[in-house]
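Sample pair:
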Amino acid sequence: MARHVDRRTARKNAIVFLLLVGVALVIAGVTAYKLLGGGKTQTTGNPGELAEVQSVKTVKNSYDVIVVGTDPEGIVAAVSSARNGLKTLLVDGRDRDILGGLMTLGWLNSLDHNYDREKTSIIPGKVDILNQGLFMEWYKQVEGDSFDVVTAANAFHNMVKNESNIDLLLKTKAIEPKLEAGANGNKKIVGVTITKEDGSKQDVTAKAVIDATQDADIAAASGVPYTIGRADVGDEKARMAVTAVFRLKNVTPEVWKQIQKRLKDDGDPNTDANELSAWGFGEMQKYPPNNKERVKMRGLNIGRQNDNTMLINALQIFGIDGLDPKSRAEAFEIAKAELPYVVKHMQELYPEFAGLEWDAVAPELYIRETRHMQGEYRLTMIDVLENRDQWDRIAFGSYPVDIQRISPTDNGAVMSHPLKYAIPFRSIVPLKVDNLLVVGRSGSFDTLPHGSARVIPVGMATGQAAGAAAKLAMDKNVSFRELSASKEHIATLQDMLNKQGMELKPYQPKPEFYMEQKAYEGLKTVVSMGLVIGGYDNKGFDTTPDSNPQRLLNLMQGVKRVHKLTGDPSGVVAGIQDAAKQPLTLDQAAWTIAKTAGLDVQAAQAAKELLAKGMLKQATIDGIADKQKLNNGDTYMMIRDLVESLPKK
């Protein structure tokens, strides 16, 4: 995940000033870092002792709820279920000794916060961080926006062991869903069959199952439909790079001061460092990898540890199938072969790294995407683009839509930076299978909004909602699907969650500047295909700049890929010198679109042919102010017309 920290300024007015007078002495010693995070600030001294996690000796044959997966989302789901009075089995199918998954074994120890950017607060962690609840309960136990993985693991362990309603079972060899026929032709999950570490099997029934595995494994095994990677934007084989987080040692306090000084003094607003986190060192993106086909570096996202080490999220590995154990093993081999050269390059570029040594690679990979479950509602890029509320909101997202590289030649993209959008309950209710909820990054999100919704704090919020929903569904004697369709029941669920620390009030977003442009309907079309990028400031959504023949050709190649069009527009710029700098005429634009659609027509007749076939609207032509010099918005509207004329998928 790309590192991003909002720089917020407290509102200065008399009322706030008077309210703060009484607490001024209390907060006077709080560091600037704590104002952003609200955690503890221990950064030196001996590392904490990792608490031993023990599985329950006897697994019961029946529970109210089974939660599969001990990543943060699963832990929160189990704690939520237990605190709502339900007997809960938390079970994991990986070879794990500790809790916390991606955070503690994948070493992803820097949080991607979701801030409510329409608000600011001087009180750490109270107003401006979205999705409080159980996430905030855990967060207050760790150091801050970067944390020591031992501290994090112990915090998760404390939350679980303190709940008498939770039985924990680790290191199972297999977890398979038990299915029966359900209503309306659906299947119904009634429990799981567990193969324990000793090879014995046990059937465990439950009234509800929550799939909190990273890859929606239980949902997939149950027959829930899903897409893989970027299939919904026409690229079935593409998925974001995986990362092997690595650790360097000898990070003394003096070394950390040097890191802070460089990042604070280099004048780049996108780099900075505090007592625990550092993000920058952009020259590392030019690192010449030994394995050019499979490896690329990005700027360094660094999280400091309490034992004079630091964890770095920066090494991207391509061509890895996160669902294939052999492919995951290959990623580790690639990382271990490349990292000595990476560290040497770091030392040559930056003197402060000269005394550091490569120590280890994280036990688990950071895999960004595999399956995207199909649920009762699929979160769309337009939901994020428009900062939409949802009547059945259970969480909020605001993190940038961060699409990491899919190949060494790709640069990745920040599609947009939303103010705030809602995650609907319907997006954790899968199609085809009842009694099941799916939380975390494999929820029902299209691949583009997944770039924002996949962050862990959002997943933890959906986990808390799932645990509460299990209690409500049992009390009301309704299925999750029935609950998801009832405004009355959802209102009750939201009330439960608000009382349990969440803040799920409805909101009316202000229209973004790009939504008020006359070509906005066209912009929505191209953004939904991932063809136009807004960036951190959303300025890329300005439709007024002039287009050019090459730019439109590039756009249409993307339209062709997404919609599986058979035409070949590649020759439309053959006779144009410096096609990226020439004005785009209506005839040239219509010809490019017609050729993409497979029409055999000359440039002068292309617009007329598109109109005749319903692939272009007269209103769109009439709205073009200068037919000899089209702007981006003009081309977006023409693309909108073509896409709307195509058969629905």
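The radius of gyration is 26 Å.
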